[in-house]
Specification:
The chain is mainly β. The chain contains one helix and 15 strands, in the order βαββββββββββββββ. Strand 2 and strand 3 form a beta hairpin.
Length: 269
């Protein structure tokens, strides 16, 4: 897809904080009603790997999404549901906000549901594609500990992510990838690296599909690295609305991700 139409969207994991079970979904519905004003689409979600592309100035995009992972020790929804909004006030940039409701059900332990960690970021496309040169952007963000760590809904610490993304479009094909460094404070935690690459193709005016491979270094002391893959895409439903979807799993350290998914209603405005 082009920069003026979204490639898909990436959601980095987010968790939850204390909020009454009845009030939290109501709050998300209010946000969703504000965000889901008519829009069109870019990349990142529904994939783990993000892209370097920005939004045209004074335009935005929103996602009402769900994302989760089933592992050997339980099931966790990073967003069930969540909202993401991006808006451009400065050329070649956009501001980024994610507010999720998270669900955590460890095997043999009580489950938890509530507000997750809030994500704030800023993407800057500082080099545009030209000839053989790819587009290049950075997309740093913070995760604020609004989730309840004691119930497995948040990290309990401010985390930061510092990535660099490259991408190139050629006819119906788009390729992008890069690497990011996660600052992951906390007892027993380690800072870690993420790398990923994705190829996608526009199959028709309404449908695109893509596949990615990604790798993450250990995020805890004594942990091991993991490698995963996913497939997904986007389908235009009507007007500015798209349905985004992906499914995947780890191929290395499989017990940490036996099955993962992302699904969203997306629009631009």
């Amino acid at each position: 897809m082009t920069e003026s139409g979204r490639e898909g969207a990436r959601i980095d994991p987010v968790r939850d904080a204390p909020l009454d079970l009845l009030r939290a979904p109501a709050l998300l519905l209010v946000f969703a009603s504000l965000l889901l004003a008519p829009v069109g689409a870019l990349a990142g979600p529904p994939f783990e790997t993000d892209d370097p592309f920005s939004l045209p100035i004074h335009t935005g995009e929103s996602y009402l999404f769900a994302a989760g992972t089933h592992a050997v020790d339980g099931t966790a929804w990073d967003a069930g549901p969540g909202i993401e909004a991006n808006y451009s006030l400065i050329p070649n940039t956009f501001f980024h906000l994610v507010i999720p409701l998270s669900f955590n059900r460890p095997n043999g332990e009580p489950s938890g549901y509530g507000l997750g960690d809030t994500e704030l970021g800023f993407k800057w496309l500082f080099l545009k594609q030209s000839g053989n040169r790819p587009s290049v952007a950075t997309f740093p963000f913070l995760e604020l500990p609004t989730g309840d760590e004691s119930r497995g809904l948040g990290s309990g610490k401010v985390q930061a992510y510092l990535p660099l993304w490259l991408g190139k479009e050629s006819g119906p094909w788009t390729t992008y990838g890069g690497a990011g460094y996660r600052i992951n404070p906390g007892v027993g935690n380690r800072n870690w690296w993420f790398t990923g690459i994705l190829v996608q193709r526009q199959l028709s005016d309404r449908l695109y599909m893509g596949a990615e491979v990604f790798h993450q270094t250990a995020d805890v002391v004594g942990g091991t690295s993991s490698t995963g893959a996913s497939v997904g895409g986007g389908l235009t439903i009507a007007g500015p609305y798209q349905a985004l979807f992906s499914v995947g799993r780890n191929v290395q350290q499989v017990d940490a991700n036996r099955f993962s998914f992302y699904a969203a209603l997306y629009r631009t405005f």
